[in-house]
Amino acid sequence: MKQLLLVFLGGGFGSVCRYLLGKLLNSSESGIPYGTFLANILGSLLIGFILGLAAKNQTLSQNQTLLLATGFCGGFTTFSSFAYENHVFLKSGDFMSFALYTIASFIIGFLAVFFGMYLTKLI
Question: What is the pTM for the complete model shown?
């Protein structure tokens, strides 16, 4: 039960942070979802760092990992918004934005995870 509560609390906090970032950065004028993109990239960096710390000499406990990686990062990042925003790009015929957003999200997201894990080796 404690583990469920940790995931719940981390996820709620992560979701609120993503919502605020989206309100701040997503532009209805340009239609480019900068907030979602940044949340997904920062979340990828954070999960790489958190899981790198957890793997490094068990620096984080299982409960801390659940709170931060599963909870916070799970709530902060959003595949569903990413998928919907791509649907909007395709529906409007904006194939260039669709391609750039999709490719950049995947490539930079993967690199961010690796970079986050790399950072844990430096500390």
Answer: 0.93
